[in-house]
Amino acid sequence: MIFDWGYAWDIAPRLAEGLVVTLQATVLGMAVALTLGLVLALARRSHHRLLAWPTSALVEFVRSTPLLVQIYFLFYILPDAGLRLSPLATGVLALGLHYAAYCSEVYRAGLESVPKGQWEAAVALNLSHWRTMKDIIIPQAIPPVVPALGNYLVAMFKDTPLLSAITVLELLQAAKLVGSETFRYVEPLTLVGVLFLILSLVSAAAIRWVEGRLRIEG
Amino acid sequence: MNEMLLTLLRGLAVTVELTVAASVLAAVIALAAGLARMSPRSALAWPAAVYVEVFRGTSALVQLFWFFFVLPFFGIKLPAFAAGILVLALNTGAYGAEVVRGAVLAVPRGQLDASAALNLSRLQTLWRIVLPQAIPAMLPPAGNLAIELLKNSALVSLITITELTFAAQLLRAESLRSAEIFGLVLVLYFAVALCITAGMRLLERRAARGLERGGA
Lengths: 218, 216
Fold this sequence. Notes:
With 218 residues, chain A is mainly alpha-helical. Chain A has helices spanning 5-45, 49-64, 67-80, 87-112, 116-124, 129-141, 146-159, 171-182, 186-217. Chain A has one domain (10-217): MetI-like fold (Orthogonal Bundle), CATH 1.10.3720. Chain A is flat, with a radius of gyration of 21 Å. Chain B has 216 residues and is mainly α. In chain B, helix 1 packs across helix 4 and helix 6 (122-152) packs antiparallel against helix 8 (178-214). Chains A and B meet through helix 3, helix 8 and helix 9 of A and helix 2, helix 3, helix 6, helix 7 and helix 8 of B.
């Protein structure tokens, strides 16, 4: 049994279709995670304990339980709750929620690293709490944590194959389908592994480059 | 309801078994790969670096399917349970190798110079000087990795191992009470994660105490 390049070439277009779905899920999921993560981070820092405490508990819970079970949970529960989403939309929501919990921790570190003097200066200038956050604190808090957020983007990319469990036709599911039609799993699954490896290594290099740029500017 | 709980608890036992076995194996792999990667001999350093990059750069689920579906074509047929443990351990071990490397590099260089001055062999330096100082620094990230491993163990349900997530799927097909079943499963995973956190904190405290007594 050796690797058949001709066969690998034949199945490449079908895998490419799966890769497109994988990339879609990653980009959309990250958009949800980045937005919701910031909301969670701000809620967790809130002075209202009724807001801060449940948010911390939620973040801890989401971070300590398997993404796959969270995906199943949403996939089976949402329709019961009257919300009919496509499997891909459900998957994007699950990925987004899971990584929002991680991103909120990253944002929190960024927010805490803003010097206290900035807050005091904003108070001295009589800026409202909202304006201080929006125009003073957040613009300083986010650039230093961009590389950390980038790492979660790569991690999420590597978690998208989990969506195959709820019938999303992404890269891994495409490879499995091809494999089950011909009973030849070597080429499709190996190609998927290699694709993931290349894309992760490239994005890791990109993150390191951004990190270097940030250090020069900062 | 009782029947349901019993099925889930049986699944939980398998999940815990998987997590413990894979964690032990992952710790051994991480230590070996982390140290090998720092070796001046490239015959050791290179394979370790490739292993770490490959397993950190690809998806855990893809690795699992590759071991389960592709290896048989090369004449290596692993039972599902063994494949599950092996992939979980190899995946976590790759991340652990970086933890080991970071902790060992953080040991002050003077310690190595002092060991050389005392004419200790390389192995003695490693076992008696470097590792005892590096291990306390490895424990907190190791705890996080153990929780990651627990979470990844849900993936092996997709290669038909009857652990907690698989048990939940079986029950759901029978009873269609998805909300209760998957809600309960999430809580069970969370409880195990809390146990891991508590256990690691205990270990960290012991390791810190050992360092105080041994050092300075």
